[in-house]
Amino acid sequence: MSEIFRIAIDGPSGAGKSTIAKAVAKRLGIDYIDTGAMYRAIGYKANLCGVSAEDADGLQAMLDTTDIDFVQGNILLDGENVNDKIRTPEVSMLASKYSAIPEVREKLVEIQRGMGSRKSVIMDGRDIGTNVLKDAEYKIYLNASAEERATRRFKELQEKGQNQSYEAVLEDIKQRDYNDMNRPLNPLKKADDALEIDSTGMSIDDVIQAVIDCVNK
Ligand code: DC
Fold this sequence. Notes:
Blueprint: E1 6-10, H1 17-28, E2 31-34, H2 35-49, H3 56-64, E3 68-71, E4 74-77, E5 80-81, H4 89-98, H5 102-118, E6 121-125, H6 128-132, E7 138-143, H7 146-159, H8 166-182, E8 195-198, H9 204-216
Parallel strand pairs: 1-6, 1-7, 2-6, 7-8
Antiparallel strand pairs: 3-4, 4-5
Helix pairs in contact: 1-9, 2-4, 2-5, 4-8, 7-8
The structure holds 2'-deoxycytidine-5'-monophosphate (DC).
């Protein structure tokens, strides 16, 4: 194994990427970078500042003065920890919308490449294996049926006390899948050299082990 190695995990919303990536990072003693959180932070800020997705100049001005960083697993937006604020269904949809904008992707991909160039990392998202870390040593495409992903998300939201029906959650997942897979720029798709793991019906531990096995091979 080379000194520095990168693991790219891509897949649709709710496939369990962040849970798996966090656990694998801990087991291997490497950093975890949640690129979805970065798109969420931008969607959150744009909405807060009233910058519409159609306002390219306004967005560029906002991006030029936006700072995003991770400190001890927390995402900092302009120095503020926004971890909890960006995990709502509204921000999920905003992230999906704003992530289709070229200026947004350009800025975040640049930051992500910088983060992946200095140390061993596991990075999850939609375009990590196909674009951000095209030369990553290990690539995983983590998938699960839309119904299984909706069931998991529904339970998570219930535990947080957020009231959304299962049908609404499933509809959201399908809408985000469509957005993420059909945008012109770096859409979600499995890299040709990625190992696909379908986690439908698999336990979290089994998926973690499958990723570790891929790295240890
Ligand atoms: O992984 P997530 O659900 O937190 O991601 C939120 C949104 O951000 C998702 O709908 C698509 C977008 N995203 C992206 O376009 N590229 C990435 N590398 C990560 C996320």
